[in-house]
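Hi there,

I know you've been waiting on this one. I reran it after we fixed the sequence typo, so this is the corrected version. Both the input and the resulting structure follow.
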Amino acid sequence: MKKLIMIAAAMIVLASLAACGNGGDNAAIVKTKSGNITKEDFYNELKKTNGESVLQNMVYEKLLEKKYPVSKKAVDDKYNSVQKSFSTDDQFKQALQQNNLTDSQFRRQIKDSLMMTKAQQAGIKVTDEGLKDYYNKNKESLTELKASHILIKEKDEAQSVLKQLKGGADFAKLAKKYSIDPGSKEKGGELGWFKQSTMVPEFSEAAMKLKVGELSPLVKSTTDGGYHIIKLEGKKDSYADLKSSVKEAYLSSKEKSQDEVIKKLIKDAKVQVKDSQFKDLFNSTAATTQQ
């Protein structure tokens, strides 16, 4: 992940250098009493340290944009979906900072990912019969749950809270008061819709056994550091309710590998590298693709 972030950052810097045409390659981009750093110096250093990976990714991006373009709306929709998965905008911004990503870099990664997925899934035939068969074989993993929870560190306190809930106490109020989960605490314990695979196994298994509106017994989780009290708010497990996500999962199961996509794009585009340092970069049968 860090390597890809460095590559993305280097690509943006190179693009900005290309845009700064004033003064030529000998123009100083940093001036010091000990000497200047020219645009050429900076370019050559970037080329030496990350040149191969940066050039590969720039070519991949160019080829994908030509054959499998995605709209700005598609990028915005995905961006907004990720942003909404965080409790607050500050948490989202903090996550970007922790991954050394600017907003524009993140959007670029989303765009590249969407183009690659489009390329991987091109040509896959989708029929109702095929989707229903896939649904029947994978129903449990496709099922979506909506739940709220309260996470409490000490068992005695968790038992006391569960007793209050069974006595009719307001779930959201107790979640805000007692839960140690910062991601859901201020939302009254709400987790929204999720699939089993996104939660720790003990949580998912307990939630799957509940009926809508039902409370779980205490669910111990060493991973989360305490005891969960889960309230199931909703459940989608019919084909009609899950059809769009069934299609998404079906396409994902049938998609081509990134290596296969890239190799074909390079072959069809007749890529020729004019810089002698990288003349064999795309001749390898095991080109490194973006993840």
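Quick highlight: The longest strand covers residues 226-236.

Best,
R. S.
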